[in-house]
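To: structure subgroup
Subject: Chain for Friday's discussion

All,

I'm putting the inputs and outputs inline so they're searchable in the archive.
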Amino acid sequence: MNDYPRAARLRPLPEAVVAWMALRGLPGVESRLPLGWAPVGLMLATYVMARRPVCALRMERCGGTLRFNATGGTILDGHDPTESPTSRWVNTTASRTCELCARPAKSRHKRPGARCDVYESLRGSTLVSVEIAFDPRLPLIDDAAEAETLLAYETDLRVPAGWARPVRDTIQNLGGASPSADYLITDREDHMALDFIEGDDSHVPALAVVLGAATRHLCKHCGRSANNEAHHGVCDGCRAVQARHYKVLSAFEDGSDGY
């Protein structure tokens, strides 16, 4: 098995394990990819072998990117399938796939690589008993991450990460429009609610309507648009990620067992 960072992580998706096993059995293919990138590697190997039969293909993770090269074989149509267009699309795909578990991810710079948000939150832990701070999700958008940090610094209010921006904007607007208002902001599962308690309420009702509407159509998990009328406050992408069974593995498990 490939080298894994010594930290707890989510168990990889079963399709990643299947792809990893398939890569091990392909003639002419040497894969040193982390398990989460196995589906990307299998896609690449299928394409390259179809366009350059009998070549020897080597794939590995290097500096946070997917590197590959081929030797020998027959190039069928005069265009080498391992050249620039292929390397661009395969690395774009890899940069959005967690190299540990194959869930949606984004490219990271501190320790270069593609990792999901759950793995980033677990990096300081090595034990399987650790509690994860949130359910698996699409990567949190930068705007929401910035607002979450600012909100935590400025207040003691803790809200779902994807809703941090509209909540922070509401608090700032209340400070300017109704500075003497006493209010309560609460999570109602499918939206954030602003309730007036006492003081100056001249602007509170309008801001409450804006906050409720904004959060109903914004994913509470990742901050992306959530326009599914049947599921306010959660985007279809996060719902799909959370519908998959997940389990936390210790730092000493690679996730290939049990399927």
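Points worth raising on Friday:
The first strand starts at residue 9 and ends at 10.
Helices lie at 14-25, 38-51, 84-94, 117-122, 142-154, 164-177, 204-216, 236-243.

D.
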